[in-house]
Specification:
about 15% strand; alpha+beta; Nucleotidyltransferase, domain 5; globular; about 140 residues; 6 strands; 5 helices; two-stranded antiparallel ribbon
């Protein structure tokens, strides 16, 4: 199964915490695999719905993000023109995406769509705990006990 982020995954990174949230997008009734509604639902899970917490959504030009304009300020980077616009970029999430994709190709070689969310969760955990030395000790301690 080839991973295509615009068809399979809704990815969100909190820049202030550098925490990734990712969900596998199940096809909707029209067969679309990633919709603005799904993106909005994921955003509601991890941020205040009214936008008063100062959250700004930084995106590329994917049309599914248009629905977010209702509740958020959106800053866009048009990758056909540039990859960084002042301090606006999607480099953090692109880095996570590259790590996930390389992990699937290099470690697992093939994944079943049925278990895709589990693989995504593993890579979210790895990314979110990449600087936390205590996680290894915790896992080792729990494995021994």
């Amino acid at each position: 199964m080839a991973l295509r982020k615009s068809q399979l995954l809704a990815l969100l990174i909190e820049n202030n915490k550098q925490v990734v949230h990712a969900r596998v997008a199940l096809p909707n009734k029209k067969g679309k695999k990633l919709t603005g509604k799904q993106l909005l639902d994921i955003l509601k899970e991890v941020a205040k719905a009214d936008g008063t917490d100062g959250n700004v959504v930084i995106t590329d030009e994917f049309k599914g993000y248009n629905i977010l304009k209702k509740t958020r300020q959106i800053l866009r980077v048009d990758h056909t023109q540039e990859f960084v616009k002042d301090a606006i970029h999607t480099n953090g999430i692109e880095s996570f995406w590259a790590t996930l994709k390389r992990g699937v190709l290099g470690i697992y070689h093939h994944i079943s769509p049925e278990y895709l969310q589990s693989y995504v969760d593993e890579f979210c955990f790895r990314y979110n705990n990449r600087d936390n030395d205590g996680v290894f000790n915790l896992v080792l301690k729990q494995a021994i006990l």
